[in-house]
Amino acid sequence: MDVTSVLDGLNERQREAVTSPQGNSLVIAGAGSGKTRVLVHRVAWLIQIEGVSPNGLMAVTFTNKAAAEMRSRIEELLNMSGQTLWVGTFHGLAHRLLRMHWQEAGLPQNFQILDADDQLRLVKRIMRDQGIDEQKWPARQAVWFINSQKDEGKRSKEIPVSDDLFQITHKKIYENYERLCNQGGLVDFAELLLRSHELWLENPSLLRHYQERFQSILVDEFQDTNTIQYAWLRVLAGDHSNVMAVGDDDQSIYGWRGAKMENIHRFKEDFQKTMVIRLEQNYRSTATVLKAANALIGNNQDRLGKELWTDGPEGEPIQVYSAYNDLDEARFIAERVQAWIATGGSSGEVAVLYRSNAQSRVLEEAMLRAQIPYRIYGGQRFFERAEIKNALSYMRLLHDRHSDPAFERVINIPTRGIGDKTLEAVRNQARTQSVSLWKAAEDLIEMSSAGARVTEKIGGFLRLIDMMRHETHDMDLHELADYTIQKSGLMEFHGRERGERGLARKENLEELVSACREFSGELVFPLGQETGEETTILEEFLDQVVLDSGDRQAEGGPALQMMTLHSAKGLEFPLVFLSGMEEGLFPHQMSAQEPGRMEEERRLCYVGITRAMQQLYLTYAESRRMHGSDTYNRPSRFIAELPTELLQQIRIKSSLGYPKKKSVSPSGGSIRPLIDEAAIGLRMGQRVRHAKFGEGVVTQAEGSGERARVQIRFSNVGSKWLMLGIAKIEPLE
Fold this sequence. Notes:
CATH architecture of the largest domain: 3-Layer(aba) Sandwich
Strand content: 15-25%
Low-confidence stretches: 521-534, 653-675
Number of strands: 23
CATH superfamily of the largest domain: P-loop containing nucleotide triphosphate hydrolases
Radius of gyration: 29 Å
Shape: globular
CATH class of the largest domain: Alpha Beta
Mean pLDDT: 86
CATH topology of the largest domain: Rossmann fold
Largest sheet: 8 strands, mixed
Distance between the termini: 75 Å
């Protein structure tokens, strides 16, 4: 292969990076600038032109998918097998080293790698053995502590002595965890990096061997490296290093999980004579999208600096939609997606991005109603998330104590000390007597066949459900949901998880209360009237959740992608919606509480904007029901930071949320009723007063004349559907 073929198809800056002399180089690769192409051609250049042996190269990525893609493209470009190349993730390469040098690393030859579930189970075992109460000290929090210490390169003995109870407790767990792992030859993911880093430090001759072997090291997504990864690379590179670090400080969005953006900033200091190359030509987005991204990120301080540009078309203005509420926002997005499909586009070309997983529920419902196939990228549907299923199981038991799936799911969530042996005894009793698990538990207590401690634990659970059932008898659905989440201990249980995971679980539980409030007073179909039997709102809600789960997200074929902004990094779509662009939601309210978090939120918005190839929508709601209550937030500051000449405001005064009942078109499809706001005397978003329910906001409407109905979200009692011909509604505006 000659020089021309290696450089074929590269622009000037890409060629500069590929052909840079041996030594250290920092490639600032903007979004959509072809960094993977540069890395692949750099490998080809080193092998074909510089004469570096394929065995003398190491390329490090952050995902197995990226590693496989890089290896495949190298094989295609060089027409050679990539099996001998050291191309992989940090963890994958560290694992390879430890397998080859298990003795030097102090490991048994057949050491076992622990996955996340294995690690959690081991920590729980340690806590039980040490008598540490998991209700007070959640096992997941202990796992987080152990992994975060390892990511910082710290063994338990290196954690300073403290009088802080949190530190004391978790250091004790960490010490016992290390002992059991060493005893059993167990290695978790964080241990792979820490152990292989210690392998370098404790075996100088082995380190020299690999420093001499790897003449060139290439590292992708350098801005995402954490402390131990950076230290691992520095030690391996040595004093005479040839390291090409490729990354973008403007896309550093994983600080919450240990990534250190300062690593890419200090690269020039720690790696001598570094050449800096900027890849700024974007091959993904329109000029309008790139100008907006540049303007936004320019508000951050201490950047390495770059300016994205394209020789492609100017593109459409960025559309900004101000919705009345979250339902209106979801409806608007669904309608624009339908319009995209109607004009020849595919649902698979569309992404809806959001800051919080809790936002997905309303968006999912809108897509289901509009019959738009969708997938939750890298996550679960709202009602399939563990914390939501736990809460629904408690609510199911309040309705039907003899629901075995619900009983079995939550009898020990939160932990009550009811072990597998005890639960198996309950199952055996149920099988023998052909009764429900609830009845079997009652029978075991009555027969006193279990020990006093076990009897008390199970009896405590039964008494809790009975008490909750009694106290929620006259509650509205949303009040029942909120009471259940709090009284069962689920909110405290899930909220004890540290970091974003625990926060997301709490937000999802609060969003469940919102879902119940919106369901209250607007039944999908009156079961009681159809069957002549009394049907509670709780029963209908639980049934509807199950029915909705039958409308699965698309399994095959093109489908709209819904995902968090964090999950969107590295992806691209012709049409992108950034939803929930409101202060307190995005940027997240917690960003104001920690130094540097606001700038990371802005980088996250930058990532979101640069996912769009052709068209970008920014949407926000004047009112939003989040975490169980109405919020009235200002539009996100990130919208204000965009040049006004790039934006086009959309305001549809007559837009309405979806009513539960739909008219049917002649073709059999569903159509939304058209409402004449002038005829009914009210408009969407208008504040009104009702003699009984107080003040509220009009959110939906349907019908006409005396049969016209409006949905009003009241501050005190939630949403209610009222007949305009009967209810006395006083406009306040």
